[in-house]
Amino acid sequence: MEMRIKEAIRYLGYGRHAVDDGTFALITEVFRELDQIKCAKSVYRIFDLQVKGADQIEIGGWTVTSKNLSKNLTGCDQIVLFGATLGTEVDRWIRRYSLTDMAKAVVGQACAAAELEEYCDDCQKKIAEEYQRQGRYLRPRFSPGYGDFSIYCQETLMRMLDCAKTIGLTLTGGGMMTPTKSVTAVIGASTEQQPCHIKGCEACEKKDCLYRRSS
């Protein structure tokens, strides 16, 4: 089973339980539609990084206070600011199904989330390949809203990437990203490879989460 289907099943809350044939067929159908309408775009910029202490970093004159992020970036001297989106058509597609076929809309939300994650992983892999040619290695993505890395940092991050012009990603007055199937993140880079750094479910202490990845 391809990874994005497994991720969509996880987002739907099945966890370790097997998905029924009807739901599996619907997921497969939704991914076929999604592949036809998505318009995935990404942007990144590289900045020098200073880790100023246990809870503070500086990125191109921007000071961020976060213990979790500082820990993630320990040993890094550069940072990649990253943004990605699946495009506005995906939002319209999900909204249309929410009016005509709620089951398909729910599956569409899960599939789009899995698609976006896979796209971001592919983008980071390409960036990592460029860095490795320079003898540098990337850390896992870390997005505003993770731990104590404030969600309000999203606005500055997007401004530094000029997301509105580069990939058509903006923030609403309420602080929501539009298109909604979008993500921003920072990625540390260092001269030392540290595979011990983990992310996501593997780093989370909430073992009983409905959406937890299977080990």
Q: What is the CA-based Rg, rounded?
A: 18 Å
Adjacency order of strands in the biggest sheet: 3-2-1-4-8-5
Order of helices and strands: HHEEEHEHHEHHEEE
Strand content: 15-25%
Protein model, in words:
The chain is an alpha+beta fold and 215 residues long. The chain contains 7 helices and 8 strands. A 6-stranded antiparallel β-sheet has the order 3-2-1-4-8-5. A two-stranded antiparallel sheet has the order 6-7. Helix 1 (3-11) packs across helix 5 (102-132), helix 2 (21-37) crosses helix 5 (102-132) and helix 4 runs antiparallel to helix 5. The model is unreliable at 209-215 (pLDDT under 50).
Write the layout of secondary structure elements.
Blueprint: H1 3-11, H2 21-37, E1 41-51, E2 56-59, E3 62-65, H3 67-72, E4 78-85, H4 88-100, H5 102-132, E5 137-138, H6 153-161, H7 163-166, E6 170-171, E7 177-178, E8 182-190
Antiparallel strand pairs: 1-2, 1-4, 2-3, 4-8, 5-8, 6-7
Helix pairs in contact: 1-5, 2-5, 4-5
